[in-house]
Amino acid sequence: MKKGLFITLEGLDGAGKTTQIALIEEKARQLGLDAIVTKEPGGTPVGDAIRMLLLDPCYSEMTVLTEALLYAASRAQLVHDVIRPALQQNKLVICDRFLDSSLAYQAAGGGLDYDFVWQINRQAVDGCLPDLTFVLDLSPEESRARQPARDRMEQKTLAFHRRVREGFLALAEKFPHRVHIIDACRSPEEVFSEIWEYMSRHLAARR
Fold first, then answer.
1. DSSP string spanning 69-125?
2. So what's the pLDDT on residue 205?
3. What is the span of the domain harbouring residue 109?
4. Fewer beta carbons within 10 Å, N or C terminal of the chain?
5. pLDDT category, 1, cuts 50, 70, 90?
6. What does pTM read for this prediction?
7. What is the mean pLDDT of the chain?
8. CATH of the domain at 109
9. Which of 144, 150, 139, 133 minimizes the C-alpha distance to 184?
C-alpha cells in the first residue's frame, strides 16, 4: 500500500464484528500487510475509562447528549493516540465501531440532531475518516437472540435498536462509496468473502 488504510466495522451487537475483524487481520497478515486492531469506545487508557461509564447499567439516567459527547471524546483520543499515528506509518487500521455508530445510535436511535452529532464528531476525528466501512446487518430480534442484553446500550428497547438499524441503512445510502451493507445472517465464511472482495478491490486500486 502507498499509505495506510482505515477500515471500520459497524452494526448491532451480535452481528459478528469480532469474528470478521479477526478474519480480516489474519488475511492481511498473510499478505504481509502491517495491521492493527482497535475498538470503540476505548482503545486508549482515557477511552477505556469512558467506555466503563458509557456501558455501565448503573448509569441508566445518562442522557443521549451525554452519550454523544462521551463517545466523541473517546474517539478523539483514539484518533490522536492510535489511528492517525498508525496510518502515518502506512498500517492497515481495523476498528470495531467509529463515528457511524454515533450517527446511528445517538442520532437515528436516540433522536439527537444528525448535523449536531456529525459536527461534534467531525471535530473529534479531525479529518481522519474511514476508507471503507462494513455494516454487518441483522434484525434487532436476531441481535438480541445472539447476544442477550448485558451492558447499558444493549439494554435499550427493541424499538431503539430498530431505529439504529435504519440509521445504519441510511448511512449506506448517504455514503455509498464508503459504507457497504453486509448480510450478517450468513455463515462467517460467506460474510468474510464479501468483505474481502470489497477490500481486495480497494487495495488493488491503491497500488
1. HHHHHHHHHHIIIIIHHHHHTT-EEEEE--HHHHIIIIIIIT---HHHHHHHHHHHH
2. 81
3. 5-205
4. C
5. very low
6. 0.95
7. 95
8. 3.40.50.300
9. 139
